[in-house]
Design a protein that fits this description.
about 450 residues, 2 domains, about 20% helix, about 40% strand
Length: about 450
């Protein structure tokens, strides 16, 4: 292990060294060096705080259609040589992989990204910010006679990719994530909120804490409602969860092989079809000013701005290099961030325009029910509310729900301005910009005892 974050130049020097040790037909090296700090609090007191630095070297050696991979954080010359030798040994034992693609050549074009916030890399500053955020939450909880629990994480990461054919690319980013739960002392009411940004200074913890506390207080003595289909308002984090579920299915191979909701007869797909509300524009852009993200994916493949849904029509499906070669169509890289366009009002102002509906704070434990329709099931958690004439009228006992992201986007009535957010149930490492959604129907299948 190395005790400091290595620069991209240092990582590239290690990559060159690693490739010089190899004897295989070709090889590739992926390196990540980062600092990761966190603080956790519960029951109105800080419980754990820690930080670590690590540098990983991933080596893949290839002969023909056989590949062997090894990961190590031993950066000594002997450690790197042993890792290369082991990767080459594994390659001799591995079965042939008919889908293994040759390395990308040099000359690839990469966009620039502003995902690196210099201030957030100051470890003392970041540690003080984590402590300050926890103090804010604990103070608010004590004032309101609630119990607070939360987690603050901040990271700095440098990474690079290099292959033996001459392609080299580097990238760097910072990321901070904060989530908190406020719960009544008797445990019978709870509220939750979350924020994420490439800049720790932009987390706005005061707003996160206040919203979680207000939801906890408002959910006290929730009313029971029958399962059924109701107009629904989804907060941005809940929308982020559903959009990640949709994102996972945007794959050309699955669609053309008949394994996807976007499959059509004879190997065709739904690209160009009006599947969603014409209001919907879902896209990714590594260079987005509010949610900047990584500029390449596995194998050094460049990431570019891509429309996935435009004017409610399915625009694009990602297509791996192997599937592109087999199908005779261009390869389409995936996404390192996700943006859903919206309206002009902030979520808190947008809610005033809602005539009636159930307000979902967050989702929990989302699972697949039917891949052909993208039907999902999950739970509402930590604050479900009945809204009438733009105001929260009461808390509502939680539900299990069964719904498809496709149907969700088809039923959109209106939306707020998109804001930086992160999913609760999904992967919060992906920068996301999502609006609050108001939909004409959302299916609640049964009541849930969850708080």
């Amino acid at each position: 292990m190395h005790n400091d974050v290595l620069s991209i130049d240092d990582l590239q020097s290690i990559a060159k060294k690693v490739l010089s040790y190899g004897k295989s037909e070709w090889a590739e090296v992926e390196l990540t060096s980062g600092h990761y700090g966190n603080l956790r609090y519960a029951a109105n007191t800080v419980t754990t705080s820690g930080a670590h630095v690590n540098t990983n070297v991933g080596i893949t050696s290839v002969n023909g259609k056989r590949a062997g991979s090894v990961t190590t954080n031993d950066l000594s010359e002997d450690g790197l040589r042993r890792a290369v030798k082991r990767a080459e040994e594994i390659a001799t034992l591995a079965p042939e992989n008919g889908e293994l693609m040759p390395p990308l050549p040099p000359g690839q074009s990469y966009v620039r990204s502003a995902a690196y916030d210099q201030a957030s890399t100051d470890r003392d500053y970041a540690a003080n910010e984590r402590a300050r955020i926890a103090q804010l939450a604990i103070k608010e909880a004590n004032l309101r006679q609630l119990q607070a629990a939360g987690f603050i994480e901040s990271s700095t990461q440098h990474r690079c990719y290099r292959n033996s054919k001459g392609l080299a690319v580097g990238d760097e980013h910072t990321r901070s994530i904060y989530s908190t739960t406020m719960r009544a002392l008797d445990g019978m009411s709870s509220g939750w909120s979350k924020a994420a940004s490439h800049s720790i200074a932009q987390l706005d913890p005061q707003t996160v804490v206040r919203r979680a506390a207000e939801k906890c207080v408002a959910w006290n003595s929730p009313r029971v409602m029958d399962p059924g289909t109701y107009k629904t308002i989804l907060e941005p984090s809940a929308v982020a969860d559903m959009m990640q579920q949709l994102q996972d299915s945007l794959d050309a191979r699955e669609a053309e092989e008949g394994r996807s909701p976007f499959s059509r007869p004879n190997g065709t797909t739904a690209i160009g079809e009006q599947l969603f509300s014409e209001k919907i524009h879902l896209y990714s852009d590594p260079n987005h000013p509010l949610v900047p993200a990584g500029v390449y994916e596995g194998g050094g493949q460049p990431l570019i701005a891509t429309d996935w849904i435009k004017d409610g029509k399915l625009s694009t499906l990602r297509r791996s290099r192997f599937w592109a070669q087999k199908s005779g169509k261009p390869a389409v890289a995936g996404a390192s961030n996700l943006v859903l366009d919206g309206g002009g009002q902030l979520p808190e102002d947008f809610l005033y325009n809602v005539k009636e509906g159930l307000l979902i704070t967050s989702f929990w434990y989302i699972r697949d029910l039917d891949n052909q329709t993208m039907l999902k099931t999950g739970l509402t958690r930590d604050g479900l509310f009945w809204v009438e004439d733009g105001k929260i009228q009461s808390g509502v006992v939680n539900f299990r729900w069964n719904e498809s992201p496709i149907t969700l986007l088809k039923n959109v009535i209106d939306f707020s301005r998109p804001v930086i957010t992160a999913p609760r149930d999904g992967w919060d490492g992906e920068p996301m910009l999502m609006p609050m959604l108001y939909v004409s129907g959302f299916n609640y299948s049964s009541q849930s005892d969850a708080i």
